[in-house]
Design brief:
The chain has about 290 residues and is an alpha/beta fold. About 45% of the residues lie in helices and about 15% in strands. The strands form 3 sheets. It has a 7-stranded parallel β-sheet, sandwiched between helices. α3 (about 60-65) crosses α4 and α4 packs parallel to α5 (about 115-130). Bound molecules: NADP nicotinamide-adenine-dinucleotide phosphate.
Length: about 290
């Protein structure tokens, strides 16, 4: 399929930076909308065409989308995420984008008490009604989220989250990128919503056990109270609304019963990365210095 140019938003983030690399390596034309000039220069050095701009600026969106025929939207978890996404899709409509791939979450729900999940549902609904061809990637939680807790694990030997004994279906970001790259370049995914999981259902106690082996020290899972968890986030200078949304997202996950899917294998062409593989790949971050 001939592609003129793919615009990627969120290109300096965890998924976006790997997606840009993957697409450039396979020879695809990539443009990024980036608000930070140093980060933009890094992506330019890799071969991406760069548009300096902000998702909150309508004029920047039109300029960034001009001459593109594909859009991969990786929305940041902002307080006005749905508004940013809707404006982006409206601009995509104006500028003639033919296919949008939206990164979303499996917990997307218009009635969700979690702001993140509500925003995703609102944006998904708008995208579906936009008349533009779309593919939605509803992913489960990223394995790389555990990197956020590596300091606690290294220094205290604990992993504290309000997850009770619930199972998760964590997915490695590299698998999300593999699926996303394939979808951008194949027509058969238009109009589809995919649920992306890893290959294992794991409780946090099981995850702590796996990380203990890699870290070479005992890591104990602590079923934290939501209040304690939120307070810890606030103490680390996270804004109150964000701490609330993150805490609620774990609370919702703690009540969920995820089902494994084979989307990564079917579309990405390879078995999902296991949690053990992920943990060993990031050993230097989990292990004590
Ligand atoms: N964490 C999970 O387990 C999980 C699971 C499912 C879905 N998701 C979804 O994944 C998405 C986050 O992906 P990620 O972790 O790769 O993102 P991330 O690392 O947080 O990166 C966010 C990106 O958005 C950019 N950005 C933020 N505000 C912007 C603005 N006003 N204008 C232009 N760019 C802006 C950031 O640019 P700067 O570099 O300039 O800050 C960065 O490139 C969210 O939609 C989340 O709901 C997450």
């Amino acid at each position: 399929m001939a592609i003129s140019m793919i615009l990627i938003t969120g290109a300096t983030g965890r998924i976006g930076s790997k997606l840009v690399e993957s697409l450039l390596q396979s020879g695809k034309p990539v443009r990024v909308l980036v608000r930070n000039s140093q980060k933009a220069a890094n992506l330019q050095a890799l071969g991406a065409s760069v548009c300096l701009g902000d998702l909150n600026r309508l004029d920047h969106l039109d300029v960034a989308l001009q001459g593109c025929d594909r859009l991969f939207s990786i929305p940041p978890n902002t307080i006005n995420q749905a508004e940013q996404e809707i404006q982006l899709y409206q601009a995509a409509k104006r500028t003639g984008i033919q296919h949008i791939v939206k990164l979303s979450t499996v917990k997307s729900d218009p009635e969700s008490p979690c702001q993140f999940f509500k925003h995703h549902a609102t944006a998904e609904q708008h995208l579906k009604q936009s008349g533009i061809k779309f593919t939605i990637l509803q992913t489960n939680s990223f394995m790389q989220n555990f990197l956020w807790f590596s300091h606690e694990m290294r220094t205290k030997g604990t992993l504290s989250l309000p997850m009770r004994d619930a199972k998760t279906a964590p997915i490695d970001i590299r698998d999300v990128v593999r699926v996303g790259s394939a979808i951008l370049t194949e027509e058969e995914h238009e109009g589809k919503t995919y649920n992306l999981t890893g290959s294992e259902l794991l409780s946090l106690a099981e995850i702590a056990e796996k990380l203990s082996i890699v870290a070479n020290q005992k890591i104990t899972y602590i079923d934290a109270s939501s209040l304690d968890f939120k307070q810890t986030l606030i103490q680390s200078n996270v804004p109150e609304w964000f701490a609330e949304a993150v805490t609620t997202s774990w609370q919702i996950a703690s009540k969920g019963k995820p089902t494994l899917t084979d989307v990564v294998t079917q579309i990405g062409g390879k078995q999902p990365i296991t949690f053990d593989e992920f943990a060993w790949d990031y050993k230097t971050i989990f292990a004590q210095e």
